[in-house]
Design a protein that fits this description.
Length: 415
């Protein structure tokens, strides 16, 4: 066994040279043969890159909502057969938000939220934007930084002060290149002094986070919306492993406060768990990535079958050559190794070209859109090259075996 292996290793360099000469004699056939592998490998690399990009994009959108975030929404309102959107029912109160912060273990910050859409007027311009009422903890909960200025304080929240933070989109529409800090914006004819400019977060979950003005929730309820109930309550938990427990405690607390049964059949609230959404999104994108890779892998299989077909044709055409080699002393293992090396060279060469083509195609996706970027991973490249090598060995073995099994006398008689 050891001697056979040693003999094979010694013959590999010479056999490789012979195999390359044979492939060079039929350049067009070799090019057409590796084309299937090229397309298959390029498809695998690019499809996995698209899947990875989609997963990264969704994860970043979920992460932009905040860190360890639970959002308690009021349920949908219903008037006859007409059902309102999530948060439209009058069920969540300020006292509920205070109770959550006071009684639920692991909660580090709470921000009651009310929101509306209103016309903002400033600098001779008029812009319809989202006006959101929040607490002084809102930026901490959302992991949102200020580009300039400062956040309003708890004292300003209690006093229902007419101060505001502005997003980059709303600032650009109202003030253009001017610095908005210290400027006055009128909302429903009420003047607000802008004290902070938010950094850009872009779009997330279907909405532009930069097109908004944030004011104290007390100011929003008293001066803008007139609401006595909250649309939602943003809750930050101390760590991600405490989120499920905190969600259960909030659920039990609100059922107790709203006099609901423990079965959840008539709950008048919903809880958005950022961790659950992130885990679900990650699972879905992984499945989609696997599916895309599997579909692309079919073309690799077709390319492997093409290699086997061409190698069988090559064996048939070169029967006399094989007979001459065996007649002058070539061992069957050497003949088998020659054809196997030819198949491996075709598949590996196709794999390398396919990887380069796949990386190029993935990179070009970013030229057409700035919101999505395909991510090529080293694992996908290694996988594609490994599979192409395995295809060369698998689909080249049978033709090589058939060549080695030829009888030298019968091969020399062949025309």
């Amino acid at each position: 066994m050891f001697n056979t292996l040693q003999m094979i290793l010694l013959q590999i360099p010479r056999t490789t040279v012979i195999a390359l000469r044979a492939l060079r004699r039929n350049k067009m056939r070799s090019i057409l043969t590796i084309l299937g592998i090229v397309i298959g490998v390029a498809s695998v690399v690019s499809m996995i890159a698209v899947g990875n990009g989609a997963q990264r994009s969704i994860q970043s959108q979920v992460a932009s909502l905040g860190e360890n975030l639970l959002t308690v929404f009021a349920a949908s309102s219903r008037t006859g057969a007409v059902r309102g959107g999530l948060g439209s029912a009058s069920t969540i109160t300020l006292a509920d938000g205070e109770a959550i912060k006071r009684e639920v273990a692991g909660v580090t910050a709470v921000s009651p939220e009310v929101s509306t859409t209103a016309q903002a007027i400033a600098n001779g311009r008029n812009w319809s934007t989202s006006v959101v009422g929040e607490s002084e903890d809102y930026l901490q909960i959302r992991s949102w930084q200020l580009q300039s200025g400062w956040m309003f304080t708890q004292r300003e929240v209690r006093a229902a002060a007419k101060v505001a933070l502005i997003g980059t989109k709303a600032s650009n529409e109202l003030f253009g290149p001017l610095d908005p800090i210290g400027q006055t914006v009128r909302i429903k004819n009420i003047p607000f002094v802008i004290i902070g400019l938010l950094t850009s977060k872009g779009s997330s979950m279907g909405g532009n986070q930069d097109d908004r003005i944030i004011i104290p929730y007390t100011t929003a309820m008293k001066r803008i919306t007139g609401d006595k109930y909250l649309r939602s309550v943003n809750v930050q938990v101390v760590s991600s492993d405490r989120m499920d427990a905190a969600q259960d405690q909030i659920t039990n607390l609100l059922r107790q406060r709203h006099h609901l049964d423990s079965g959840g059949r008539n709950d008048d609230f919903n809880i958005f768990n950022q961790k659950e959404i992130a885990d679900t999104a990650s699972t879905i994108t992984k499945i989609v990535t696997l599916l895309l890779g599997a579909i692309a892998g079919i073309s690799l299989l077709v390319g492997g079958i093409g290699i086997m077909n061409i190698m069988l044709v090559s064996v048939t055409e070169r029967i006399r050559e094989i007979g001459v080699r065996m007649a002058v002393g070539a061992q069957p293992i050497a003949v088998q190794l020659q054809f196997l090396v030819e198949a491996i060279v075709l598949s590996v060469l196709g794999g390398v070209i396919g990887v380069l083509l796949g990386v190029g195609a993935s990179s070009s996706i970013g030229l057409f859109t700035s919101s999505f970027k395909a991510i090529v991973s080293v694992n996908s490249i290694v996988l594609a090259l490994s599979v192409s090598l395995a295809i060369g060995v698998f689909f080249g073995f049978y033709p090589a075996r058939k060549a080695a099994a030829l009888n030298p006398i019968d091969a020399l008689r062949s025309e």
